[in-house]
# Entry
Amino acid sequence: MKKTIIFSLYLVMFQAASGQDYVRQADSLKDEGLLVPALMKYATAFTQNPSHEVSYKIASTSALLWTSQMRDTSFFFLNHALQNDSTLTALYAPHFLSLIDDPRWDRVEESQLKKYEAKNGAIRNKPFAKELFRMIIKDQGFMYAGNIERKKYIDNGGYFSSPSIFPILAMEEINKEENEKRLIELLNKYGWPTASGVTEYAAAGAALIINHSTYEVRAKYFPMLEAAFKKGEAQPLRYAKMKDRLLVEEGKEQLYGTQIKFENLIRKPHPIKDPEYVDKRRAEIGLGPLRSYLKARFDIDWQVAHKE
# Structure
């Protein structure tokens, strides 16, 4: 009996380990843009370990394929993945852009908001929050395909590998314009969204969209973001990004090192004021060291001795 139990446990552990191997292989394929092979690996992993984590990966990958059949698959696995999930992460996940105009997304949205509120308390301005979540998805939704092509652009010495990037860029522009128009209407109606009013995640969406607009729009609405930040109602990174971007656009040195440029196809930060003190400034507003941020976000090895 004891040997049988030990063998059964070993078998379960082996299957779980094998499943994780398939997940890692699928993640790698997905990073390269090979969605169908990735989906097949995720499916194999799911047969060995039908976890909510693998279900979510299948749902997000299926959504990126954009066909009606894949949307059906995505909703099926997404509902399974979110059974015990009371977070709002799925509601602003860019991979689900192909789902948000489907009536089934409304049900996913309502279910997650209900579970979140049961655990964390009521969201004071839920209509504003819901629109902001969808704006985040629209703003970021084409970046999976776009970023793969942008990486190839660098690898190819400044040439895109496929003309498919151009309609993607056009759709990004359309979504950006639609988001900006609607957000300004909502800002005029409600004021700047606060973390306590719409959740921290939704509030970050307003800064994201304004930061992707024109200098004139950023300059107009930045004081609202700054006021919210000083009250603890806005994320430090969103504040830092918009502040730095405005400074760079005005021909000044940035303060927090969030703005990146290309020089000879190599990423590097725009000039930083007193760079030896940038980590001190970042810490004062609640951000970690710049070196870690640049490495994690842009794979930039930044070497500047800092002072307190």
In short: The longest strand covers residues 260-263. Strands lie at 260-263, 266-269. The CA atoms of residues 92 and 134 lie 7 Å apart. DSSP finds 14 helices and two strands in the chain.
